[in-house]
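Exercise 7. Predict the structure of TolC family protein from Hymenobacter qilianensis.
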Amino acid sequence: MQALVNLASQIHPELAKTRAKLNQLGIERRLLSNKLLPKLSVDYNLLRTGQPFQPEGDMQWTNTYFANNYKLGLSFEYPLLLRQERSKLQLNQLKRREAELDLQQDTREVQTTVRTVANDWEALREQLRVQEQVVENSQKLRNGEQIRFENGESSVFLLNSREASLVSGRIKLAELQAKYAQTQATLRWAAGGDLE
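Solution. The predicted structure, encoded as tokens:
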């Protein structure tokens, strides 16, 4: 049963969804942390002279670059207070903590559900084994009563009573088999997928 619980903890869709949310919040946290870094920009522009390009006419466009005619710029930005970025980062940390707690809660719920259904399944399997034995014994009693009736040692009433007991046992066996199959399907669903 523990192997089934461990498998359910790995493949259950609800847990996978919560893990994906945690990964998303982790990526968002890294992005928000990068926004706290200072910004450094370097600009370089080469100045040139020339006439604008005109596709019509015979004008020839000249591109002459002046030596030592360029513009170089450097800018450095760092906000003094960073209130907005810090608050977004703290909000992300709170969301991440909430998602971690949700993952723990969902994991416990999945494990509890799987254990409960697995216990029901085991109990039904035992009931099914006992009921099969009851039906087998009822069949033997009915066959014995038939032999006694044919020998004149029994009555139709006793034979019908054994037959009713056998039919009742078979009906109960069929109900248990259906309930067993239903519980097996419920166990697969509770574990988060097909476990064959």
